[in-house]
Amino acid sequence: MGSTRLVLLLLLLLLASPESVLNERPGDGCGHMVVHQESGTLTSMNYPNTYPNYTFCERRIQVPEGKKLLIKFGDVDIETQDCESSYLKIFSDSSKLEYAYCGTERAAPKEIFLDVNEAIVRFESGSHISGRGFLLNYASSEHPDLITCLERASHYFETMHSKFCPAGCRDVVGDVYGDAADGYRDTSVLCRAAIHAGVIADELGGQIHVIQHKGASQYDAMLANGILSQDGSLSDRRFTFTSNGCSRSLTVESSIVPSEQVTASSSWTWTSATSENLQWHPEQALLQNKGPSWASNHSSSREWLQIDLGKRERITGIITRGSMLPNFNFFVETYVIKFTKEGSKWKTYKGPLGKEEKIFKGNSNYLDTARNTFFPPLVARFVRIVPQTWHQRIALKAELLGCPITQGFYLVAIVAPVAVFVCLFLAGIGIYATLQKRKTKGDPYSRTDAQKTVGCWQKINPPFVRHQSAEFSICYNKENESLQKLDLLARNKADYQLPLMIGTETVTRKGSTFKPIDAETKDQICSAEIESHYACPQRGSRHDYALPLTTQEPEYATPIIERHRIQENTCNSEVGYNVPAISAAFQHLLSCPDHAKPSASDPGGVSYQTPHSLKCVEQGDYDKPKVSSSSMASQGSKSNYHRPQVGSLVNSGYLAPRDCLKPINWKTTVAEVL
Fold first, then answer.
1. Residue 418: phi, psi to the nearest 5?
2. pLDDT for the residue 546
3. How distant, in Å, are the alpha carbons of 33, 234, 268 from that of 168?
4. What number does CATH give the domain 153-241?
5. How does strand 39-44 pair with strand 360-361?
6. Which CATH superfamily, name and number, covers 248-408?
7. For residue 275, pLDDT beyond 80
8. What global pTM score does this model have?
9. 129-142: b or e for each residue (b if 16 or more CB lie within 10 Å)?
10. Per-residue model confidence as pLDDT tens digits over 150-171
């Protein structure tokens, strides 16, 4: 008696608080559900039959980020008295209600469009007598032409139209009449018919293109891609799907030699009571060959049938049959596919999602055909059919569908890697050239850190040979500083080379053979240049410049001839001149006269100094300066004259200072003196 009361008490608690049961078993009211990245299908339990009492279902559906969610209701049938015990609700998040359906008082909307990419579907049922529940499909906003799994071809009247089928329609109840070869009756549901025809994969869904035709008198049933179509009667219209045309028989077009290109793990030979033998060899496995099929000698999942196509082909599907003999009701129910391109390294086909090996549904009897489509197609030469389940004994015939690999496929497979390599190679060359250009961009003769004082040395152009000058001018500043004597480098008499720097010996000269041009203007210019020169640092590789002469009288430098020795009879002069040494290349121009008299017409009376070591030549070979009688008396009747340096002397290789010391035109100066 006590136990009976306890049971009754528990029943009362359950009836009074059904929510407690729901909390213990959340999600027990959900039915068929297939979710993919772009689309999916969700139904209540037992759809389209009556859903159970006191069930609860909650699922989250979503599409990729940045896209919006489109939901379409294929069917909603809920028996309820209020929205507390039985309802179907859509939430954009855990609290925001977007849609609610609570019974038959109003029709459910055909679709809802959410501004978010995910939503929560919640279904709850109480006590009821009837009701199918719900079926909904969803997709992203990129597919506004979404249709549900229940829509038929008869709902559309366009000759050609395109629709988007969601993933998961294969296992939804719906009639399909006919097959892909002859077309489908217009009362067939579109999405299941598309899966049956191999146009889309159930795991993915996809776009379908439908063409309406005039109806046929009869439609034949066929098992394809896990859907068994039905025989159909006469109809006004029928429809087909557009395809890529890659579904021809490869075993026929490849001219396979069965005895050589069809092999198996084993074969069976049947012996009758009268000792008759029936061979079930592998070469009988091709579908176009009449007679019994191939049968294995063992019943094991390690048995296989192999087909060699002779070359790589693009394989899109397979057709199988059973034993073909009514007395031998053998057929393969499920199988997997393995393939290879070269006969080694076998791979197992994994289907469109690529996560697990794909198990294909085979035949349901010994005679009827079963077709399966490969999504995606595979490229191989060798294909193995490995049975997983079978009826009585492993036995089958097979035919591979597909098409030859086009030349474009090979071109893409070859050209694409080559193009990538060429692009990378050119990019590497460009980067290398840029780096090299940056390394060599700076001028190797540009100023150093010690020479970067503003207003000092200027940038030197590419290497050059600085030719020594045969003459140079010396300027004086305004203060008329004291004269600085210029030393010359003593050299061997027999070895005269181009002088590289100022020497140590002193040469003095009285008077001047140059005529002033514009002393005041030149003094100003040279003074500014000298100030700038001394304000700038000098490089260690350059010689020091001579200081400007400081005599009170304006004196001008005259290049003279010197043997680089101090002669005993050298004339003393009041003023010393800075003179460069002469090159050995011009010694043949030097000579001294036996006698020379100054001209009486020249009142200047200028005497010239001649090296004593030179041998005199004819008097006519010398130019005589115009001098006065007074200068003749002071110097004597005989004087050694220097021959003016003209012509080639201009091109001699003396180094002249760059700042304030400028070469002058010797020809003009000599003409003025003479």
1. -65, -45
2. 55
3. 7, 30, 40
4. 2.170.130.20
5. unpaired
6. Galactose-binding domain-like (2.60.120.260)
7. yes
8. 0.60
9. eebbbbbbbbbbbe
10. 999 999 999 999 999 999 999 9
